[in-house]
Amino acid sequence: MTPSMSAVRVDGHRLLQRLRELAEIGALPGGGCARLALTDADRAGRDLVVGWMRELGLEVTVDRMGNVIGRRAGRDDDLAPVMCGSHIDTVATGGVYDGNYGVLSGLEVVRVLNEQQMVTRRPLAVAFFSDEEGSRFAPDMLGSLVYAGGLGVDAAYQLIGVDGARYGDELQRIGYRGEAPCPGPAPHAYLELHIEQGPVLEASGITIGAVTGVQGISWTEVTITGQSNHAGTTPLALRRDAGLAAAELTLFVRRLADELGGPQVGTVGLVDLHPNLVNVVPGRARLTVDLRNSSEDVLLLAEKGLHEFLDELAARDGLTIDTRVLARFEPVEFDLRMIELVAGMADHLGQSVLRLPSGAGHDAQMLARVCPAGMIFVPSHRGISHNPAEHTEPDDLTAGANVLLQALLQLAEDA
Amino acid sequence: MTPSMSAVRVDGHRLLQRLRELAEIGALPGGGCARLALTDADRAGRDLVVGWMRELGLEVTVDRMGNVIGRRAGRDDDLAPVMCGSHIDTVATGGVYDGNYGVLSGLEVVRVLNEQQMVTRRPLAVAFFSDEEGSRFAPDMLGSLVYAGGLGVDAAYQLIGVDGARYGDELQRIGYRGEAPCPGPAPHAYLELHIEQGPVLEASGITIGAVTGVQGISWTEVTITGQSNHAGTTPLALRRDAGLAAAELTLFVRRLADELGGPQVGTVGLVDLHPNLVNVVPGRARLTVDLRNSSEDVLLLAEKGLHEFLDELAARDGLTIDTRVLARFEPVEFDLRMIELVAGMADHLGQSVLRLPSGAGHDAQMLARVCPAGMIFVPSHRGISHNPAEHTEPDDLTAGANVLLQALLQLAEDA
């Protein structure tokens, strides 16, 4: 396929301005954002973006999961739309680009097409999916998971958040429990523009990533039960210290990832001790293990290693150890045409391009279940993300949005 | 000194009944108590015990730290009183005996003496000191520390609790900011009855511990600052993971205690990660290190080892590590006459007795700064304490209270 280029370009200043406006909702004192899924801040963010969709003349649909889709009519309006999008929820200490950049770039594309009075053959759709981060309601990518038929709506409604709230109740409360069916209709194709959230593009001096696929993700919650006791009077040999076991597990996860090598990563991001007091030996520890690999076989091996270690630890220290799967997604390979379309458009726009896998999970991997899907990455400064210091250079943001524009125009002319 | 014995005995059933009544305040669902210092539950517990003091005819004084002393007149009422007591605050997941047992046994002694119409030469005093546990406001043993002149009242008022509240404000709020001066008057002697909170007496099959002294305590708060980042996209080699460093510190503290051997113990009881999310590399960790030894020299060595390790860790992983002393008390040796009085009285009452040090800190170590002080221990089942499962057999509770009764009668006849 030889892509034909359009002369239209996005307005990077406008895009940045919109990013700044959205970032004011849930803004953190030192920069960054907190808009956890289905909180009041998330509702305010949704209201703002839905308002912008309506200003652009998009037909807005809210489905039963709270996924929001803004649709722009095409010349052959009965054809399935070409969809772009991402999410606008954030982690508790999030940056301003993660997710938001893809959604607002989609709206900037629509704005440019409106101004140019360009009508594509297929309809275009800009979507934001609910609870992509999974910080409040696990698993992550929940909205797109249900959209793509990977989990039932009713099961999702029953999920309990870290604060004890129920997904269905919170969705109702913020006014985003829509009527449209979910799973939703399969688009013709789905293309997601996103910051890399890793250091590879910046370190390589390259502007555009044509994403080849997404690492598999395994999240396990581990609960260790020992015996809480007085820190001054309990001899070391008699302790069943759940906090000590949690520390050993944390170091094991790092060692496991180091030993498996390659793209394998492993993280203990959450630890809660009980009773969590200076002078009490912890009797209980709850922690999470995040394992990722682009090879399903190696990921299975990592999970096996984790469970063997937990069995040994429980036996050695007289502990009870329970595990629960919080999320499990196999690695995803994106559609080859989508990868090459992104790479080709970047090249035609004079941008350097690198084909690379994604270490983070994204809504695109869910949409890949129902249609050809792909992703465009732009560099993240020092690879920092899920952090208020998350940053991408304005020129890179603009470059990525122009690749999105050209690729969408191309896809939207498909028969 | 050959102790002369009185024929009077406490009523163990009455004592148990009172322990049960006090345990209803702040009762936890599965047993045990939560009456953190200066909370509403602590106030309710104080009100109940003060009511009992007044019923017994004691003259109740509340000092500026909220320490409460109930005084029973003596024949030579100008002499300094013989004091017993302990505390009635608990940790967040406390048992029903820790502290409460010593205070209510003192009141049971007074009740017996009232019934027998016995008047001692010196006045008797039953005290409960504020915030012994230190779970809400560090350091622990705060009320008795200030009573004994180890810290100024105004400095104590400025202490900020784990929930952000100020000691002086909370004391005022619960109505226990009294008028009596603090530091308070030195008693003639102080004797504290307490559960062992360790396994030694039970394991030895012995009922009464004559406590020889208290281990030195060193509490350090450690704050580790690294870089929070995405758990899926950040290569292992580029991470500055504060949670991983916290885990290494936790294991180091155990290794340090093992290597120093003897009575040395070391505990990491509290760990708070930030942002504490499954998919974010922790950027900050706050944890506490509790080190104890009966030798000041070895305790200093342990602290030196801790700081050397933290320096190495910071340098190796590119972390910033800050430390803050939460509490530091040198080991205390109790007055020899008090130790032998407890041992002799236990012996005369037909109880087995063991001279042993205390691994836990107690108000008695603060009173030891201003008068001869001592302690009586009774066994703790399986050494469990700071835990709802804390248990001591009723016969042992009664035996300990009878040793207290006899020892107080002896001390109260001193010229």
Task: Write a structural description.
Two copies of one chain form a homodimer. By secondary structure, chain A is an alpha+beta fold. In chain A, 35% of the residues lie in helices and 21% in strands. Chain A contains twelve helices and 16 strands. In chain A, the strands form three sheets. In chain A, strands 1, 2, 3, 4, 5, 6, 14, 15 and 16 form a nine-stranded mixed sheet that branches. In chain A, helix 1 (12-23) packs across helix 12 and helix 3 (100-115) packs across helix 12. Chain A is elongated, with a radius of gyration of 22 Å. The mean pLDDT of chain A is 95. At the A-B interface, strand 8, helix 8, strand 9, strand 10 and strand 11 of A face strand 8, helix 8, strand 9, strand 10 and strand 11 of B.
Q: Which range does the strand content of chain A fall in?
A: 15-25%
Secondary-structure element pattern of chain A, one letter each:
HHEEEHEHHHEHEEEHEEEEHEEHEHEH
Query: Could you tell me which chain pair has the largest interface and how many residues each side has?
Result: A-B, 70 and 69 residues
Oligomer: homodimer
Poorly predicted regions of chain A are: none
Computed structural class of chain A: alpha+beta
Computed CA radius of gyration of chain A, to the nearest angstrom: 22 Å
Largest sheet of chain A: 9 strands, mixed
Q: State the helical fraction of chain A.
A: 25-40%
Which geometry of chain A do the CA atoms define? elongated
Summed over residues and divided by their number, the pLDDT of chain A gives a mean of 95
Helix count from the secondary structure assignment of chain A? 12
Q: How many angstroms does the end-to-end distance of chain A come to?
A: 14 Å
The tally of strands of chain A reads: 16
